[in-house]
């Protein structure tokens, strides 16, 4: 690994100051589970590594006005075990529980998973399906972006060099909402997804879907939403035919490649079958969520 | 066997405390004064001509001490690798010179003051290549027009008169007349199987350190299964007499057949010779996956003729072993026919060169691949004939000690004939086997003046064999396990020992140790007879005492005898034992698995794995169970996920443990392990070699369980979710599933 300087600011304004001064030369360190590997392999060669402090807004999970505020330095293990999340946005907990091992989840953070912007980042489809936003701060000010506008491509985001992700904002799921998440991988744990699928469905009292979000991981240059499939679902009760149609539309949204983890054909096939399966699951949960 | 005091117990391993406390020293832990670090320059092509190597930029990196390419080596120097298990010998250049023949092949070696400088310099060695089309699949390699891995190889003639290209060796075997056998059969089944290459995936990567002193004596510290074979390989590769090479085997973090040397040790010696400084080479995981000695792949077509009642009449096989740029796989081909009474057997096996790394041994070399085919096909035959797979085997199994009994133990444990399964669930059962190697070995057993003892020999302990032979010595001497110390000697100190592979150690070294202990005991009895004024025949012994038959009061402790020996013409009690090429036994292994298959994703969940092994005599029950479970898990892993994935350009696309998967505990079901004991007439206290057989049946058991769950017979391993999903008919189909 190359030689670099290291800073451990203790306050948010210090973090923003350093980022402002060192923009372009610095990288922010949270859990380091991706970053250390990238640096070891020479993919990242920052002159300065800034470790984020374990203080607010970087840590903590709170619910204010139906909005979950999740500090970007919150670990996967905290997401996995947080009762508030399990109540209001369970798929995020489920997705987090699929990342690496317990040891990795004790270090890896939600901000890191977002910042790395891997097409196969497991929490990302869950966050997209939950309609999450990210709060980005810099010395120049702050902005809040829907997560769907944050990713550009593999490892690429709209984050500016002087900005840091401080919080992830997740709307608490409304009533009559069901969600489902599945990570397809060869190994039960410690594996990288072949396909990730996340589904959130909200129904009205009659069982008609009034809101639907389907998000896919590892099947495009970035985690994506299957908007056409979502639109097709709205206004209807889910039956086999509709699940089938939506699954097919989700397949069309996917642009998978063939790599060491799976062929494009398999990924496309799985997007369809898993979407169909998760729609059924999420719908059933929505119907029983009075 | 109730009279044993040490054999058949669960004593803790001799090395347990050192390993648990982190005190055990591995090769990578050693740092010598003035040591330099070696880093290889590797080929980025699977097949290319080397036009030019320019080291000038690399030489300028501060700290660089040496850069070695084939050009700098004399013609007498070549890589000689002898593998005990395969009895195979390979001779190649130490570095690629005219051509590179696999992705990651060594082109040059850089030695520098620091690892960082060596890496930097290695990245600056400029090699100009002219890429050539590679051949990766043995099925393609034998076709006319395929790129030739070795240009001067003439094609050979196959069993049907066809020309087979890229064949580097062949072997044929026939008993009876298979054609007549097939004609006499009621049904003939023919199936093809394909097994991808896998890596042994030991946890400690390859590592070696070498020094040379002013008198020219070379010392090597390395992670190896056999320091004597490492010594011999270095001697023959570099033309150095054996007495000038001392090899010290360090604690080993797994080998499974891939640590017989020739991967890093010879290169560390070379670097020490060039620089006259200690030199260290430690592989990264990526290097290990790229350039070690993974198991050979196999394409096999297997044909079986049976009577309507399931009696096997004839079996034949046509095998193409994917040996990369190595060799040594052929002899395993016959494994499919060993367990059964089959009047007519024939096999034709070919080693096919491909642009992939040289093959090496992997636990029961070749047997998992061959038995995947042989045993899966038997289960398919059973299913087609409507005969239970256990019944089919009972009809055909040879009448050898332990064969049927061990199978029936599993049947009884599961209640096989009333086995239950839920939706998408299935059961599979398969047999495996191995005949342990019988290898030359020698040992000394000394009795100390206080009546305790030590075993001294040169065995390399991979699996707990130090513990096993210590138990053997204690039992033979009439001592407790705690009374005996094991001392491992390096190649300068210890008498010859075989490399630890092929399930040889407990059997061969165990016999040598037992004989040494018996020799020491005989010496003690002679001294005691003299002291007690009786003949040796009148003496009884046990529990560290010797007494006169029927007069237990007329006795001497071992301490008293050992001290008396020092004052007598006998001198110190030192027993010697040797073992050579002596007979050994085939032992049977049985594995049954239950799976649940997700028919939409192809994901397989292992629900149960039951394995039974005839160990002959369990010297250490815990270790016998551990060996059985370890092998079973490796076969499950191979069945489900392991594969070195080479793309069409021959580039390894999964050279990390993130993408070359081995299972975690979450992928493996609780292991239900059964040991049977049908004593060997040749092994110490009846023990048989047990390391290899537990890996031999799992692939077929899993394939058969998947078939039982889905109706689909998988014929390619590993059986990944993707392969399974595409093999299962897409019902119900999505509109987009026509692809």
Tell me the strand order in the biggest sheet of chain A: 4-5-10-6-7
Note the total helix count of chain A. Answer: 11
User: Strand tally of chain B, please?
Assistant: 31
Oligomer: heterodimer
Radius of gyration of chain B: 28 Å
The main sheet of chain B orders its strands as: 3-7-1-16-13-14-15
Q: What pattern of helices and strands is seen along the backbone of chain A?
A: EHEHEEEHHHHHHEEEEEEEEEHHH
Give the integer mean of the pLDDT values of chain B. 95
Which descriptor suits the 3D outline of chain B?
Answer: globular
- Termini Cα gap of chain B: 63 Å
Number-wise, the strands of chain A total: 14
Q: Are there runs of chain B of 5+ residues with pLDDT below 50, and where? A: none
Overall form of chain A: globular
Name the biggest interface. A-B, 30 and 26 residues
* Overall residue-averaged pLDDT value of chain A: 97
Strand content of chain B: 25-35%
Binned, the helix content of chain A reads: 25-40%
Computed structural class of chain B: alpha+beta
């Amino acid at each position: 690994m190359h030689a670099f300087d290291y800073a451990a600011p203790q306050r948010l304004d210090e973090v923003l100051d350093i980022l402002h001064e060192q923009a372009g030369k610095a990288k922010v360190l949270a859990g380091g589970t991706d970053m250390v590997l990238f640096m070891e392999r020479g993919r990242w060669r920052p002159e300065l590594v800034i470790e984020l402090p374990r203080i607010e807004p970087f840590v903590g999970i709170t619910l204010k006005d139906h909005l979950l505020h999740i500090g970007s330095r919150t670990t996967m293990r905290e997401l996995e075990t947080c009762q508030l999340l399990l109540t209001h946005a369970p798929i995020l907990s489920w997705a987090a529980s699929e990342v690496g091992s317990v040891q990795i989840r004790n270090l890896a953070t939600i901000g890191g998973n977002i910042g790395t912007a891997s097409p196969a980042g497991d929490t990302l489809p869950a966050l997209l399906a939950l309609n999450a936003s990210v709060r980005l701060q810099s010395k120049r000010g702050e902005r809040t972006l829907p997560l769907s506008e944050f990713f550009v491509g593999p490892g690429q985001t709209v984050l500016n060099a002087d900005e840091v992700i401080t919080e992830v904002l997740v709307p608490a799921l409304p009533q009559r909402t069901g969600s489902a998440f599945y990570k397809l991988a060869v190994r039960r744990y410690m594996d990288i997804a072949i396909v990730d699928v996340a589904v959130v469905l909200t129904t009205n009292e009659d069982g008609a879907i009034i809101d639907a979000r389907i998000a896919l991981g590892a099947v495009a240059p970035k985690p994506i939403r299957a908007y056409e499939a979502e639109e097709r679902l709205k206004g209807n009760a889910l039956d086999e035919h509709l699940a089938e149609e939506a699954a097919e539309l989700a397949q069309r949204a996917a642009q998978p490649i063939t790599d060491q983890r799976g062929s494009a054909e398999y990924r496309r096939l799985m997007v369809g079958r898993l979407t169909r399966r998760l729609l059924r699951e999420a719908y059933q949960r929505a119907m029983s969520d009075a | 066997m109730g009279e044993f005091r040490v054999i058949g117990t669960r004593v803790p391993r001799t090395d347990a405390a050192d390993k648990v406390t982190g005190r055990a020293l591995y090769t990578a832990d050693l740092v010598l004064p003035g040591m330099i670090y070696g880093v290889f320059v590797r080929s980025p092509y699977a097949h290319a001509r080397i036009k030019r190597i320019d080291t000038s930029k690399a030489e300028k990196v501060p700290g660089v001490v040496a850069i070695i390419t084939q050009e700098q080596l004399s013609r007498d120097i070549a890589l000689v690798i002898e593998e005990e298990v395969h009895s195979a010998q390979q001779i190649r250049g130490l570095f690629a010179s005219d051509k590179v023949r696999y992705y990651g092949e060594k082109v040059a070696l850089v030695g520098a003051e620091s690892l960082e400088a060596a890496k930097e310099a290695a990245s600056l060695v400029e090699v100009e290549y002219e890429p050539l089309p590679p051949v990766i699949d043995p099925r393609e390699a034998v076709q006319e027009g395929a790129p030739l891995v070795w240009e001067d190889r003439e094609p050979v003639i196959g069993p049907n008169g066809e020309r087979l290209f890229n064949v580097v060796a062949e072997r044929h075997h026939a008993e009876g007349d298979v054609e007549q056998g097939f004609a006499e059969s009621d049904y003939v089944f023919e199936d093809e199987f394909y097994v991808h290459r896998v890596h042994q995936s030991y946890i400690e990567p390859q590592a070696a350190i070498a020094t040379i002193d002013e008198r020219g004596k070379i010392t090597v510290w390395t992670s190896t299964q056999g320091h004597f074979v490492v010594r011999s390989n270095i001697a023959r590769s570099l033309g150095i007499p054996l007495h000038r090479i001392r090899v010290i085997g360090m604690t080993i973090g797994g080998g499974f057949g891939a640590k017989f040397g020739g991967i890093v040790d010879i290169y560390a010696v070379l670097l020490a010779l060039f620089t006259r400084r200690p030199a260290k080479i430690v592989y990264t995981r990526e290097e290990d996956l790229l350039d070690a000695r993974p198991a050979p792949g196999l394409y096999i077509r297997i044909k079986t003729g049976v009577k309507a009642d399931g009696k096997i009449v004839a079996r034949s096989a046509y095998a193409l072993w994917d040996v990369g740029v190595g060799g040594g796989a052929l002899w395993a081909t016959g494994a499919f026919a060993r367990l059964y009474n089959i009047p007519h057997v024939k096999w034709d096996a070919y080693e096919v060169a491909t642009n992939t790394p040289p093959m090496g041994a992997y636990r029961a070399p070749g047997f998992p691949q061959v038995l995947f085919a042989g045993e899966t096909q038997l289960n398919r035959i059973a299913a087609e004939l409507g005969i239970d797979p256990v019944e089919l085997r009972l009809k055909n199994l040879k009448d050898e000690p332990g064969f049927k009994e061990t199978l029936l133990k599993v049947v009884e444990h599961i209640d096989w004939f009333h086995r239950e399964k839920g939706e998408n669930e299935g059961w599979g059962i398969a047999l495996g086997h191995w005949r342990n190697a019988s290898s030359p070995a020698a040992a000394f057993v000394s009795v100390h003046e206080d009546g305790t003892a030590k075993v001294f020999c040169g065995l390399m302990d991979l699996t707990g064999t130090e513990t096993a032979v210590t138990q053997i010595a204690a039992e033979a001497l009439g001592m407790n396990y705690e009374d005996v110390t094991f001392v491992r000697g390096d190649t300068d100190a210890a008498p010859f020992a075989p490399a630890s592979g092929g399930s040889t150690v407990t059997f061969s070294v165990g016999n040598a140790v037992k004989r040494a202990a018996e020799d020491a005991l005989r010496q003690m009895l002679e001294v005691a007879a003299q002291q007690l004024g009786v003949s040796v025949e009148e003496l009884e012994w046990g529990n560290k005492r010797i007494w006169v038959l029927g007069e237990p009061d007329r006795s001497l402790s071992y301490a008293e005898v050992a001290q008396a020996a020092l004052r007598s013409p006998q001198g110190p009690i030192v027993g010697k034992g040797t073992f050579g090429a002596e007979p050994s036994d085939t032992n049977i292994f049985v594995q049954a698995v239950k799976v649940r298959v997700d028919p939409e994703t192809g994901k397989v969940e292992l629900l149960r794995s039951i394995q039974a092994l005839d160990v002959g005599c369990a010297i250490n029950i815990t270790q016998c169970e551990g060996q059985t479970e370890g092998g079973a898990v490796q076969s499950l892993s191979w069945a489900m996920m392991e594969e070195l994935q080479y793309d069409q350009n021959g580039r390894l696309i999964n050279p990390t443990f993130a993408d070359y998967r081995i299972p975690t505990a979450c992928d493996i079901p609780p292991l239900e392990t059964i040991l049977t004991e049908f004593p060997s007439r040749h092994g110490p206290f009846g023990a048989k070699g047990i390391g290899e057989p537990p890996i031999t049946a799992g692939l077929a058991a899993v394939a058969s369980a998947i078939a039982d769950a889905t109706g689909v017979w998988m014929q390619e391993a590993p059986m990944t979710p993707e392969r399974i999903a595409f093999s299962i008919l897409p019902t119900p189909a999505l509109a987009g599933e026509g692809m």
